[in-house]
Design a protein that fits this description.
The protein is of the alpha+beta class and 802 residues long. Helix content is 53%, strand content 17%.
Length: 802
């Protein structure tokens, strides 16, 4: 064996050994989890950390998409700049008499200078803000005339502020998730103002959302105290809460003839009272007057923990301990309000307002609230993680039960193994010993994909396994193209070595072009933020790169090595078509044109999104709503379920008594996801009875996200098509590229139309992101055959010019 060939084989072996080293802990972990090998819990945990992480669809858990309320955040930021302008006016010497407010739509700052003599200094201050690039140009003539002046905060500055706020929120949520102790959590920024949180093993999405998106704004504010002190029984003076002199503490409304004192505002307060009849503590809502000025926040909090007060029937108490700078500030606040009440607010609600009997210099305090032990523990946890800098809303929520994940693993692994075995057997039967080498290269291909995923710390999802299975087919395509070329060269009388060299050389361009066009579709899919689509796209893209390496390099090296050792190799004798046998396909062109035109027009008309046409059968991903996997223990027909509530859609799926239930949101309120989940439970209770069903998994997508997915899906198809057109133009000619793209749209539209027709007949599902993934793969695969034909046409044009 020549040195050059030894080097090639050595590279292949090195890649295999490195890949095995990377993937081996994953194999060990799953063998340990399944009980096939005996490992200690400590070793199993160590293997888990070294293995490829599984997606939620394979191990169960919660997937939540959160969004920062950008409009509200912008308004808050603009208000902050308005406050800066107002403070600058007040701090000028002498203070400038001016009114600073926000416009009705809260997008501009409106300034009115009330005294003519204050116009020039006000103008100078506003120019200073403009020079600091905070505001755009403003109308100086208006301010001189005493008219309202509109200040517009620079959009670039607002954008930077929002990005910083989202990044800060991301850090806070990561800290909160870390304190939950969840294994392999995922917290990532998605787009400009969204955060995706995936928590494997969690079952209650509402609890998770409540824990991670609670603002947890801790504030200390002074209470409106009485002007005259009262003397306690122990002789100490104190200034009690005087809110009842101004407001009705039960409703929060001002008393007749009274006004809210300047600088104060009404806040709700939760208090506990013991029921004389039962002795049980009950919560009551009251209202209290507190200063608008915040004396101190939770930014300086060092630690928080929970204890039980035995003197109050084990009522939970949340302890707070401040950092040194916070302890110093807290000492100053308690000295300032000694003998007066100080309110402790959480997210704008007063939990306690104790009287400060003495200065607190230890840097700690307690919150005695109206919460149970679990709520107190969650509160302590999120206080330690820090307050959220912006309000977050839930835009999408998915849950998968672990049992459903286990079923998914079994089904997907079964599909991967069975599909690979069928392909491998076909290659051996059809191509003989060369087929065996192709199968070895195929195994190396799959191994490289898993090694890449481990190296990139990528998550393996159910759709990702589908992408690997698709890669198996693509890898076989590459080997078939090479082997058929080698057969052709052998048929022309070439020696075995010549045929192998020419076969690989002449198949290179078509394999490279075909895989690269599929890669264009795969890269386009990565712009979708959902785990299922990204998982599929990631494994597909890695698989394409691996296919180019194994098909063009590994297979070539192994065949050359086999021939060097055995002097011969079989490429099989089976052939579907004997040499010299051709089909005159152009003879059927009129029939094909007519049939394609009928299918194309019917598909276009069927999916038109307006009446009287049926329109696309959009799923939850695009329309918004709740999609749930439900297992019903007692036999019930789809017709019975559908008839009970015509506005939901029920579909029987594979599995024992498994159903797919789709519901549109029952409300447009912010809690539409939770409200729809509760409605689903009510309906199932009524139709099949409590305890006769189990919701194994659910996913929900808001209407806004659904509309965004629709735009993204259309854009993805267009971008992929344009990318393929440009590449085909570059590699062939514009006319070739244009013809290929026309063929692509023909295939896509007919596939989309027929899929929707079958869906309405309950023979196929709804149009989901997975279907869009399949369409984009069809887009990539459809051009493969076209490229193979174009490549041969190009070759024939060179061989037979004119």
């Amino acid at each position: 064996m020549k040195a050059e060939l030894k080097l090639r084989v050595g590279i292949v072996l090195a890649v295999v050994l490195i890949s095995l080293w990377l993937v081996f802990p994953t194999f060990q972990y799953f063998l340990g989890v399944s009980g096939k090998i005996s490992v200690t819990p400590e070793r199993l945990e160590d293997l888990r950390k070294q293995s490829i992480p599984l997606g939620l669809d394979l191990q169960g858990g919660v997937d939540v998409l959160l969004e920062v309320d950008e409009a509200r955040l912008k308004a808050l930021k603009i208000q902050r700049y308005a406050d800066e302008v107002s403070n600058a006016f007040k701090q000028d010497s002498p203070p400038i008499d001016a009114t600073v407010d926000l416009s009705p739509d809260k997008t501009k700052i409106v300034v009115v200078v009330n005294k003519p003599e204050h116009v020039r200094p006000a103008q100078a201050i506003l120019k200073r803000f403009k020079e600091q690039q905070i505001f755009d140009n403003f109308d100086e003539t208006a301010i001189q005339a005493g008219k309202p002046v509109e200040l517009i905060v620079r959009s670039e500055l607002l954008k930077q502020d929002i990005e910083k706020t989202v990044d800060s929120a991301l850090k806070v949520i990561r800290d909160r998730v870390d304190k939950l102790g969840v294994t392999q959590p995922v917290v990532v920024k998605q787009g400009a103002n969204r955060i995706r949180v995936q928590l494997p093993g969690e079952k209650d999405p509402d609890k998770v959302v409540k824990t991670i998106i609670r603002p947890a704004q801790l504030e200390f504010r002074a209470v409106r105290a009485a002007q005259q002190p009262v003397v306690d029984s122990d002789g100490r003076e104190r200034y009690p809460d005087d809110s009842a002199s101004y407001i009705d503490i039960n409703t929060g409304k001002p008393l007749e003839g009274k006004q809210i004192p300047a600088g104060y505002e009404v806040r709700p307060m939760r208090i506990q009272k013991r029921d004389p009849a039962t002795g049980q503590l009950k919560t009551e809502d009251r209202y209290i007057l507190v200063k608008q000025k915040v004396e101190m926040t939770g930014e300086s909090l060092l630690d928080s923990w929970v204890s039980l007060d035995p003197t109050k029937f084990n009522q939970p108490i949340v302890h707070l301990e401040f950092k040194p700078e916070g302890a110093k500030k807290f000492e100053q606040v308690t000295r300032q309000y000694e003998h007066k009440p100080l309110a402790v607010l959480l997210d704008g609600v007063v939990y306690t307002a104790p009287n400060i009997n003495q200065v607190i210099s230890e840097g700690s305090c307690i919150i005695e609230g109206v919460f149970d032990l679990e709520e107190a523990q969650n509160l302590s946890l999120i206080l330690k993680a820090g307050a959220l800098p912006a309000e977050l809303v839930t835009k999408e929520k998915r849950t998968v039960e672990a049992t459903l994940g286990a079923d998914s693993i079994r089904a997907s692994v079964y599909a991967l193994v069975v599909g690979s075995i069928i392909v491998a057997l076909f290659m051996i039967v059809y191509y003989g010993m060369a087929g065996v080498i192709a199968d070895i290269a195929l195994a190396i291909n799959v191994l490289i994909i898993f090694a890449f995923m481990k190296l990139a710390n990528a998550t393996l999802t159910l759709s990702g396994i589908g992408g690997i299975l698709l890669t198996v087919g693509m890898a076989v395509d590459a080997n078939i193209l090479i082997y058929e070329r080698i057969r052709e060269e052998l048929a022309t009388g070439k020696t075995l070595k010549q045929a192998i060299h020419l076969g690989f050389g002449r198949a290179f361009s078509v394999i490279f072009d075909a895989n690269l066009t599929t890669l264009i579709s795969g890269l386009t899919l990565l712009q979708f933020g959902t785990q299922t689509v990204k998982g599929f796209a990631l494994s597909l893209n890695i698989g394409i790169i691996a296919t180019l390496f194994t098909g063009l390099y590994c297979t070539h090296a192994l065949i050359d090595a086999y021939v060097a050792l055995r002097k011969t190799i079989s490429f099989g004798k089976l052939q579907w078509l004997k040499p010299g046998v051709y089909f005159d396909v152009l003879k059927l062109k009129k029939f094909s044109y007519a049939w394609s035109l009928v299918l194309f027009v019917a598909s276009v008309l069927y999916v038109l999104p307006f009446k009287p046409f049926p329109g696309p059968n959009w799923g939850v991903d695009f329309e918004g709503g709740l999609l749930s996997d439900v297992q019903i223990t007692k036999p019930v027909s789809v017709q019975t379920l559908q008839a009970a509530y015509p506005d939901w859609r029920v579909q029987k799926v594979s599995g024992e008594n498994m159903y797919l239930v789709r519901m549109k949101f029952v409300t447009n309120a912010q809690d539409q996801i939770s409200a729809t989940q509760q409605e689903l439970v009510k309906r199932l209770d009524k139709v099949v009875g409590p305890g006769n069903y189990k919701v194994l998994g659910s996913e929900s997508v808001s209407n806004e996200v659904g509309a965004e997915f629709t735009r993204t899906a259309i854009l993805a198809c267009l971008i992929a098509s344009i990318g393929i057109l440009i590449y085909m133009w570059f590699r062939f000619e514009f006319l070739f590229g244009f013809a290929a793209v026309v063929a692509l749209f023909h295939d896509l539209i007919i596939t989309f139309g027929v899929f929707n027709m079958l869906g309405d007949l309950n023979l196929a599902g709804e149009v989901t992101l997975d279907v869009v993934s399949a369409l984009l793969v069809i887009l990539g695969y459809s051009v493969n055959d076209t490229i193979i034909i174009f490549d041969r046409v190009r070759e024939n044009m060179r061989l037979h010019p004119g």
